[in-house]
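Limitations

Structures in this collection are predictions, not experimental determinations, and the ligand pose is part of the prediction. Treat each record accordingly. The example that follows, with adenosine monophosphate as the small molecule, is included so readers can see exactly what is and is not provided: the inputs are given verbatim, and the output is the predicted complex.
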Amino acid sequence: MQTKIKQITPETLSEAKTIILDGGVVAIPTETVYGLGGNAFDDEAVKRIFEVKGRPNDNPLIAHVHSDFDLKKIIDYDPPYAKKLREAFLPGPLTLVYPSTGKVSPYVSCGLNTLAVRVPSHTGAQAFLRKVDIPIVAPSANLSKHVSPTSAAHVFEDFNGKIPLILDGGECVGGIESTVCDVTGEIPVVLRPGLITREMIAAIVGDCKEYIPDFTKKEKVKSPGVLYKHYSPRCQTKLFDCKDVERAVQTAKAQNGVRVAALCETFFVSKFEKIGLPCLNLGETETEMAGNLYRLLREAEKICDILIVVEPRKKDGVMEGVLNRLRKACASVDIEH
Ligand code: AMP
Ligand code: MG
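Predicted complex:
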């Protein structure tokens, strides 16, 4: 199969719609990362997405809809605080997890009794979702475990020959995936941190908890995505806390016969440049670091065998999401479950 990259126009939106209604898969841009879109009502299309990504079949998908989509078509339980969150943050990088009603394919939620729904703000994503006017499941358009894609070229790297069409909506500005927030209980619970922080959610509805899975209990993990090694470049990584930056520099120096590079915030860059090492600069602000992370991890795998990573100094707010991705990218194994 030939994979085409096309700008978003009325013609390419029609082409995308035809593919989707035929049970096929189309890559689409969003403001966070590119997604691999398929019809959420179509069992075969949903199964195809798991297959083409190599995604574990217990890691559920998010249904994407346009901003005028009638949510009652796919959910019924909708607490007043969820409405407040939608008014405050949607369209935007916030996914809300509702009790499921069984309206979309059972393969979407992988046996969980919930359904995750997101309304992306990217104009290209909105145009596509309006055109098809059905919920579209769209996990990040990368092979499972690989770095998430923030450009059409990244999607092409992973899926050339495997999908017919990539809609090119430019570079994603957000850079990390949406915040996933459970709204099935009395107060919202963040299952995956992202650009909409717990503090921002609490400021709207008064309270917000963080979900910390208890792996010692036999209970079903609420967001299976948290279990997996993820977002990883195809080079070896060595992660250091910002307090251990000198040790990171020494470790970089001690590598022989392999290509070494560093990845860190602007503040630490000169430490690696001083020893003549290529250094990928994450940036200074938290939004800059979120926006650059995946692009730099993909660049890293092209220029080095070992990547020395120094965690940024700031750990809260948006950095919670950035650190969550960075630590998983550097993890060597899946968590047993
Ligand atoms: P991705 O689409 O690749 O960004 O991954 C989707 C994320 O949303 C994963 O971490 C999933 O575990 C999470 N997710 C999707 N559906 C649900 C759900 N029904 N309940 C909890 N988490 C979900
Ligand atoms: Mg993903």
